[in-house]
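Q: what does this look like with NDP bound?
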Amino acid sequence: MDLKDKVVLVTGSSRGIGLEVARAFAMQGANVVLNARKPIDATIIQQIKDLGVNCWDISANVTDVDSVKNLINSILEQAGHLDVVVNNAGIVRDGLLNRMSEEDFNSVVKTNLVGTFNVIRQSLRSMYKQRSGCFINMASVVGLTGNIGQANYAASKAGIIGLTKSVAQEVALRNLRCNAIAPGMIDTQMTQQLSDKRQTEIINQIPLKRFGQIKEVAATAVFLAQNDYITGQTITVDGGLTMQ
Ligand code: NDP
């Protein structure tokens, strides 16, 4: 897919990986829709517009079906079409099983997995009509391996991988694709909060001996959108932490 003038929605793009993904698509000439639950800082929107593309900020909560319907309808009204959907919005509520509340489990699954389903479901009608486009879902290596203290998060991300393969099979006849990215430890606010000791322990387990950069995840999203013959895959971006 040539990304110039395409319209790309990135959910959860007020900061971190999502914002970098939006920037990376804008640098390819794509118009981008930023999204989070709250309005996004005006300076961020201007920085993306300065790359010479359109940038819309449409607040929506991916867990709420009506909010997602409004998001997709607003995109179609304002941008005219929707070509790439990056399901990136995600939360963590870590805790050991015996201390993990039902609310902690459900809220993570609802945001990460059900939120991804909601956005795909509501985008389908227009993408089926145009018979081109793709979905890119942000999973995690934890969805492949599991992790102590992350039963909710790992379940949600494993669910995203299964969802991705099912969607890929179902939409392929309409020339749509669906892939996932499974980042490992990426240098974000989340990983910067770990103690120096814990960061060193983790780095020692990574063959490439460093955390990943958000631009390395973003470049993978752009690659998956551009390559028209990849579907149903989960690409790990993890410095070799998990080798299948
Ligand atoms: P951040 O916490 O920095 O950003 C999450 C984004 O999602 C924010 O923009 C947040 O905005 C938004 N968001 C959260 N809940 C909702 C919701 N219900 N509806 C709409 N937007 C929402 O996360 P990261 O950048 O670190 O991670 C991005 C993705 O990558 C996540 O899916 C995460 O699981 C995944 N990932 C991250 C890794 C890492 O090392 N950082 C490793 C592996 C996977 P707001 O709160 O304002 O709504």
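The pocket of NDP is lined by residues 11-18, 36-38, 61-63, 88-91, 111, 115, 138, 140, 183, 185-186, 188-191 (CB under 6 Å). The mean pLDDT is 97.
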